[in-house]
TrEMBL record:
Membrane topology listed for this record: Multi-pass membrane protein
One Gene Ontology term, aspect cellular component: plasma membrane
Gene3D superfamilies: Rieske [2Fe-2S] iron-sulphur domain
Localization terms from the record: Cell membrane
Stated name of the protein: Cytochrome bc1 complex Rieske iron-sulfur subunit
Source species taxonomy: Bacteria, Bacillati, Actinomycetota, Actinomycetes, Streptosporangiales
Function: Iron-sulfur subunit of the cytochrome bc1 complex, an essential component of the respiratory electron transport chain required for ATP synthesis. The bc1 complex catalyzes the oxidation of menaquinol and the reduction of cytochrome c in the respiratory chain. The bc1 complex operates through a Q-cycle mechanism that couples electron transfer to generation of the proton gradient that drives ATP synthesis.
CDD domains, per database record: Rieske
MF GO annotations: 2 iron, 2 sulfur cluster binding; metal ion binding; monooxygenase activity; oxidoreductase activity, acting on paired donors, with incorporation or reduction of molecular oxygen
Organism in which the protein naturally occurs: Sphaerisporangium rubeum
Keywords, sorted A to Z: 2Fe-2S, Cell membrane, Disulfide bond, Electron transport, Iron, Iron-sulfur, Membrane, Metal-binding, Oxidoreductase, Respiratory chain, Transmembrane, Transmembrane helix, Transport
Organism domain of life: Bacteria
């Protein structure tokens, strides 16, 4: 029989490899006795390394095993969810996403917790010290570099030939300014162009795509919606990026105070189609709720109430365009928008003041 030191610092006697039969009630082993399960209150420290005591190690082991078991079950649930919950419509897709996301989250969370408990409660603890090397270069090396640099400077004649030195500096100075010249390639400054669109008094509203002018009397079914562009700019993508409209016909009783009624014609309202969040086309219209929805980040606007924001990240309503009819009964603009269209970052400083002045 031989004895081996263990991390616990206990001299562990080698057990005979044949099974032993115990007759009667075994005598309880005392603390520190070989094979004891009695609790040791303090962690065991051996040569500066702290080991967990036997009882808390067993407890931690059970906790980690339980967490890994949860991971296993959640992973099985993930696979089962993938098979059971088929997508097809929005509701079934939501259920599938919920089941997949929920089970995967639980699996990853339990796995991470298990690993953390394992490391913190079961692994030995000791201080690791990494020595830093001195950052400064050796003084001899620095001296040598200095000497080489001075030798190079002397050999170049940079100090000796004044004319060369001065003309070199003269030649190098404009090079530093070149990036400023290249800034010009970024194009002209936008000026106030972002605050205005091509709409002006008398511009006819045309149906996007067909280019047909819109007779107000023909656009008479409440709930109808059209995508509209300004006459003369049907193919000007720069202009259309700001000027495209949606036109909606309401029942008079549907309109709420947020809508400027004197900017409508026969309960037909025109709003900018450019979402005030980051500029996607907000053209999904839900007829029963009168909601305009932007598909990019789900900003939702109440079309009956001045297109005010009722949901989502947009910070302000879709601007309303004043409209009327010309002598032939076609819908026309009464003016440009009175606020900048599109993302809110366009609406700054002077533009806001200008808008307030016009209001
Ligand atoms: S661009 Fe419309 S919600 Fe973001």
């Amino acid at each position: 029989m031989s004895e081996h030191p263990t991390p616990n610092g206990v001299q562990d006697a080698e057990e005979p490899r044949v099974p032993r039969r115990v007759i009667g009630t075994p005598v309880k082993a005392g603390p520190g006795t070989l094979g004891t399960t009695a609790p040791a209150e303090e962690p065991i420290v051996h040569e500066g390394v702290e080991y967990p005591d036997e009882r808390s190690a067993r407890k931690a082991e059970r906790v980690v095993a339980l967490l890994f078991l949860v991971t296993f079950l959640a992973t099985v649930a993930f696979i089962a969810s993938y098979v059971v919950f088929q997508v097809g419509d929005i509701e079934r897709t939501q259920v599938s996403n919920l089941a997949l996301g929920g089970s995967l989250s639980v699996a990853l969370l339990a796995l991470a917790c298990g690993v953390v408990v394992w490391v913190r409660r079961l692994m030995p603890k000791y201080n690791l010290i990494q020595q830093r090397h001195a950052m400064a270069t050796d003084p001899d090396v620095r001296q040598e570099v200095n000497a080489i640099f001075l030798q190079g400077a002397n050999e170049s004649g940079f100090v000796k030939y004044k004319l060369l030195r001065r003309t070199l500096l003269l030649a190098a100075a404009p090079l530093g300014l070149l990036p400023l010249v290249l800034l010009k390639d970024m194009g002209p400054l936008p000026g106030t162009s972002l605050r205005h669109t091509v709409w002006k008094k008398g511009t006819r509203l045309l149906v996007e795509g067909s280019g047909q002018p819109i007779r107000a009397a023909d656009f008479n079914s409440p709930g109808g919606i059209l995508s509209v562009v300004p006459e003369g700019h049907e193919h000007d993508l720069n202009a259309l990026a700001k000027a495209t409209l949606i036109l909606i016909k309401f029942r008079p009783e549907d309109l709420k105070p947020g809508t400027k009624l004197n900017w409508t014609h026969d309960s037909i309202v025109a709003y900018s189609k450019i979402c005030t969040h980051v500029g996607c086309p907000a053209a999904l219209y839900e007829q029963t709720t009168h909601h305009i929805l932007c598909p990019c980040h789900q900003s939702t606007f109440d079309a009956t109430d001045g297109a005010k924001v009722i949901f989502g990240p947009a910070a302000r309503p879709l601007p309303q365009l004043p409209i009327g009819v010309d002598g032939e009964g076609y819908l026309i603009a009464q003016s440009d928008f009175n606020v900048p269209v599109g993302p809110s970052f366009w609406e700054r400083g002077d533009a806001e003041a200008e808008a307030r002045g016009q209001a």
